[in-house]
Amino acid sequence: MCAILLRLIIDLPLPSMLNSSRLIKAVRTLLDFLYLACFTSHTDETICWLEDSLAAFHNNKAIFIDLGVREHFNIPKLHSLSHYVSSIWQFGTTDNYNTEQSECLHIDMAKDAYHATNQKDEYSQMMIWVEHQEKIEQHMDFIIWRQQGNWHNPPLRSQIGPLHPPAQKVKMPWNPSVKAESICDIIRMYGAVDFADALGDFIAGVLNDVLPGHATRHRGENVYLPFSRVPVYHCMKFTTSSNPEELEIVDAIHARPEQKDSRGRFIPSHFDTVLVKGREQTSQGSK
After folding, report:
1. Residue 64 host element (H or E)
2. pLDDT (mean) for 180-188
3. How confident is the model over 221-253, as pLDDT tens digits?
4. Among residues 155, 114, 151, 111, which one has the least CA distance to residue 137?
5. For the segment 69-94, what is each residue's pLDDT rounded down to a tens digit?
6. I want to staple 220 with a disulfide (CB 3.0 to 4.6 A). Which of 30, 43, 201, 206 is the partner?
7. Which whole number is the average pLDDT over 51-58?
8. Domain total of the chain
């Protein structure tokens, strides 16, 4: 739809002799915003383009009111566009997250709530229905707490799940996705530009366990790698148990090199961002 939308309104005659330039600017700037928001990497310049496109749309959107298409722009999805820049600064590009969670909550807190009303003054009824559901869940937690006999530790609704989650195990396939990938191809095809330096830092940290962090990083710069190829795994899973019968996958991380689809179109590389808790540093060195 975005690919043909702009060409549909070019030279479109408007009623009351209205100028179509505002309509074209409003549509074009909104499309610019959507395409810029899909970038897999951003710079200060592209962020400025994103903000300028949204500002230009707001400056020209009144044409839809003049045409009688809209009476107002109090639309939640339209308001959410103002948060894109701050979200990109805080959480990274938009391909790092999706709308699955909000879509799921939409079913629980909007669709089910609406079906429970009589479709008259539905918003207040929906709020009451959601509040009732939360109270029922709290009461269920209270019943489970009483049945378990935890008389001295009252349940806290804000504590979702155990205070100390079970230790997680790393589950990886027996064979790597790529048996021997060159370091140059890893940097080029996976976008891991710091892979060689990070590998050197890791080796230096293993060989020099007693060195403080800054000395390890300095030593890693001079580590000689006697190999040029390494195995690559495209998936790693975290489970709560090493027993296959009790296996529960908590999370998974993926890496994907650049490739082409069936139509020959280029698909950029992608890998999940993972935060790793390192060893704690003390005044006497690393633990």
Report:
1. helix 63-66
2. 87
3. 667 778 889 899 888 888 876 666 666 777 788
4. 155
5. 888 999 988 999 999 999 999 888 98
6. 201
7. 95
8. 2
The residue to which tokens 């997680």 are assigned: 168
- The answer to whether residues 173 and 282 belong to one domain is yes
Helices (H), 149-194: 183-189
Count of C-beta atoms within a 10 Å radius of residue 111: 11
User: What is the sign, positive or negative, of the torsion defined by CA atoms of 122, 99, 31, 1?
Assistant: negative
Are 186 and 91 members of one domain?
no
Structure tokens at 248: 């529960």
Read off the tokens for 11. 């030279």
Distance CA 233, CA 212 (A): 30
Domain assignment of residue 125, yes or no:
no
Q: Across residues 49-64, what is the average pLDDT?
A: 93
Whether residue 120 is predicted with pLDDT greater than 90 in this model: the reply is no
DSSP code, position 167 = P
Angle at 15 between CA 12 and CA 20, to 5 degrees: 45
One-letter amino acid of 220: G
Q: For the chain, how many helices (H) and strands (E)?
A: 12, 10
Which residue range is the domain that position 190 belongs to?
A: 169-286
